[in-house]
Amino acid sequence: MIKFTHNNFLTIPAFDLTQWLVTIADSENYIIGKLVYNFVDADTMLSLNQEYLNHDTDTDILTFDYTVGAKIIAEVYISCPALLENARINNQSAERETLRLLSHALLHCFGFADKTAAEKKVMRAKEEDFINLFHVKH
Q1: What distance in Å separates the CA atoms of residue 102 and residue 22, rounded to the nearest whole number?
Q2: Which domains does the chain have, with CATH numbers?
Q3: Is the pLDDT of residue 56 over 90?
Q4: Helix-strand-coil percent breakdown of the chain, rounded to 5?
């Protein structure tokens, strides 16, 4: 089950996103048990960041990963204002940034990290591969 809570923020059909995310999981030998994406405002994201990570900063995405073995179970929070700002800064569409963040969360569930420069480079390459996969299929 994949769910998107977004108050009309998403412009890409949920069906297309769901098929794409299932394809990504399958390509990494995972199945999706329950994956919930919550698109939230900046205040909500800051509160979550403070409460769960003791960070007093804004962020674009938080992934709460409860994956067991190869079964993805996760709850993801994406800051709508941060997503739009990232798209603007990187001169790309909000759609492309949305795909990047959706795949970023899934990569964390697969065990990828992004603490070091080397890890970030690997994650960014995987995100690009997955974004390109979406555009080939849709």
Answers
A1: 12
A2: 2-137 (3.40.390.30)
A3: no
A4: 55, 20, 25
